[in-house]
Amino acid sequence: MRKVVFGGNWKMHGTWKQTEEYLQHFVNCPLPVNSEIILFVPFPYLSLMQKTLSGTQIRIGAQNMHSEDKGAFTGEVSADMLVDMGCTHVLIGHSERRSLFFEKGPFLNSKVKKALTKGLTPMYCIGETLAERESDKTVSVLQSQIREGLEGLSQDDIAKMYFAYEPVWAIGTGVNASEEDARSGIAVVREAIASMSSSSVSQSVPIVYGGSVKTGNIASYMAHKEVDGGLVGGASLKAEDFYLLIQAGMQGR
Ligand code: PGA
């Protein structure tokens, strides 16, 4: 049985006060025991997360990291720094990092490797743009993103990773992918992972769907056994909403 994972990706949202209120609400919610919940929050709130969430079932995630241990990289954060702040997970290759910050395959691959070396679980994000989908390139784009991200990794390392299939056209647009798009995209990703490792490794790693996931649609995605949860942006920004979304998702199982 694969893990069920719900990630809340706050992106560049929130204040200290809102984070405090969020956590106060969230830590008191009875979360489903058979799922993993990760909050990917902005760096400045990691210390608050660490203080409030220790001993709870909620995991602390970062939205990005650099591949180097240290050095003259103004504005960047290392894997060791994230570990210091209690992070267990890190997003790598989110489409906003790829498109707005021009992060490319080899750099993402070096980040994945560094995260694994430091004991962080990378949630590696992949997904096609609308133009790529419309020109029938979805499969080849997903295959090449997986190939680039996993290049040079051992099977043991790949087995430690999480994946998020997020069609770029569905992120933050309110246009969520159909269940079939999500299911078939994840199937392609799983097959691509198998080609870089083995079928047993690819069957064991969680692959979640992301892109305009809401309380009203998560259950229909998760009704498909290939979909191991969700990476949620906008609908994770309010504790009440995210909690309801998690409950709805678990009902879809
Ligand atoms: P969204 O974002 O849920 O707001 O579409 C998802 C993501 O970017 O991970």
Describe the SSE topology.
Layout: E1 5-9, H1 16-27, E2 36-41, H2 46-53, E3 58-62, H3 79-84, E4 89-92, H4 95-100, H5 105-117, E5 121-126, H6 130-134, H7 138-150, H8 155-158, E6 162-165, H9 179-196, H10 199-204, E7 207-210, H11 218-222, E8 229-232, H12 239-252
Describe this entry's structure for a reader.
The chain has 253 residues and is α/β, with parallel strands linked by helices. The chain has a single domain (4-252), classed as TIM Barrel (Alpha-Beta Barrel), CATH 3.20.20. The protein has helices spanning 16-27, 46-53, 79-84, 95-100, 105-117, 130-134, 138-150, 155-158, 179-196, 199-204, 218-222, 239-252, and strands spanning 5-9, 36-41, 58-62, 89-92, 121-126, 162-165, 207-210, 229-232. The protein has an eight-stranded parallel barrel, surrounded by five helices. Strand 2, helix 2 and strand 3 form a beta-alpha-beta unit. The two termini are 12 Å apart. Bound molecules: 2-phosphoglycolic acid.
